[in-house]
Design brief:
This protein has helices at 2-22, 24-31, 36-58, 64-87, 94-117. Helices cover 82% and strands 0% of the residues. α1 packs antiparallel against α5 (94-117) and α4 runs antiparallel to α5 (94-117).
């Protein structure tokens, strides 16, 4: 099941990474007023993360530290989104808030599952 969670997380990162990279101005308008350059950098980072998640998903014995690293990254993502929404910073439109909360719920679920399904230390 860990491989499926990693792949779902990778697919999500790839989708949003591509969107942020190529359509940053449009995404910025939809969610509020984040800097488009920031969205483009975030998109590039998400694409790298997607590749790493997919790579981890094909390993026969994934490294526990890597899986926990991905889970921690997901937790940071959720915390950042909640902080931005709470502070009224960058994510300010009703659609942006709804999309951000929905994506964060998925990302948070992936993080929890990765944490729980990470290989046990030997």
């Amino acid at each position: 099941m860990l491989q499926q969670v990693l792949r779902a997380n990778a697919a999500s990162c790839a989708l949003f990474g591509a969107l942020f990279s190529v359509a940053a101005p449009a995404i910025s308008i939809v969610i509020g007023d984040p800097p488009t350059l920031l969205l483009q950098f975030l998109g590039a980072g998400l694409l790298v993360n997607a590749a790493l998640l997919f790579w981890a998903s094909v390993l026969r014995h994934p490294n526990r530290a890597w899986i926990l690293f991905f889970a921690l990254g997901d937790a940071i993502w959720v915390a950042a989104i909640l902080a931005f929404i709470g502070a009224g910073l960058w994510i300010t439109t009703p659609s942006g808030i709804a999309w951000s909360l929905g994506v964060s719920a998925f990302v948070g679920a992936c993080g929890v599952l990765q944490w729980r399904l990470a290989p046990k230390p030997v």
